[in-house]
Amino acid sequence: MAFKDLPADMRPREKLIARGPAALGDAELLALLLRTGMAGKNVLQMSQELLDTFGGIAGLLHTGLDELKKIKGLGGTAKRAELIAVLELARRALAERLKERAVFDSPDAVGQYLQLHIASRPYEVFAALFLDAQHRLIAMEELFRGTLTQTSVYPREVVVRALHHHAAAVVLAHNHPSGGVEPSRADEALTQALKAALALVDVRVLDHVIVAAGRTLSMAERGLV
Strand 169-175 to strand 204-212: parallel, antiparallel, or no bridges (unpaired)? Predict the structure, then answer.
């Protein structure tokens, strides 16, 4: 069932035009991207089913093309490509903000940026945001995957990438697939090891941010950096 076949009061496009995008729920916004449903399921029902399957908008947008292909009704490339494109546009918009202003002038933008990149991964990812002397974003790189400890995250590699970008400072980041954001003893030890290694090349560690789906914690705010 397409938009034109929905009752007038259920059409997301008309609702958005009349009341603005903030008036729409997640399923309604997603329905605007999908445009059509499938036999026996209108586009709003299909949108809600997708959100339920992948754990909301964040989970859906972090889902890969191959996973989306397995969902009935998303077998074609157009809809899957549009979903991935929306995520990439959001990432680029946030990156532009962080490149224009010091990261700590936009703490919410940093959290949103990390949420879009690594929060919903099913495995642990360690990343670094490399910053210039004004603490604006130069680049973000995902450097390691898997269980993160002092022995699995190599300080030398982080130093090499910081020097490559001519970074003056870094913000470290990793995700907790379990959903919690409390730092572990291993997180604290890793932070201190990287801080010491980067200090040797005059690069400051400003923060170590832990993210999970919908949650963010700053170790600097806890006094752990």
Answer: parallel
- What per-residue string of b and e applies to 145-180 under the rule 16 or more CB within 10 Å gives b? eeebeeeebebeebbebbeebebbbbbbbbbbeeee
User: Can you list the positions of beta strands (E) in 62-179?
Assistant: 125-131, 137-145, 169-175
Separation between Cα atoms, residue 52 and residue 27, nearest integer Å: 10
Instruction: For 155-214, write each residue's pLDDT tens digit.
Output: 999 999 999 999 999 999 999 988 889 998 989 999 999 999 999 999 999 999 999 877
**DSSP letter at 115?**
I
Residue with tokens 């026996």: 40
C-alpha span between 47 and 30 (Å, rounded): 6
Domain encompassing residue 160: 102-218
Residues 56 and 109 grouped into a single domain: no
Looking at the fold, whether 78 and 166 belong to one and the same domain comes out as no
Residues 38 and 129 placed together within one structural domain of the fold: no
Residue 193's SS3 state is: helix
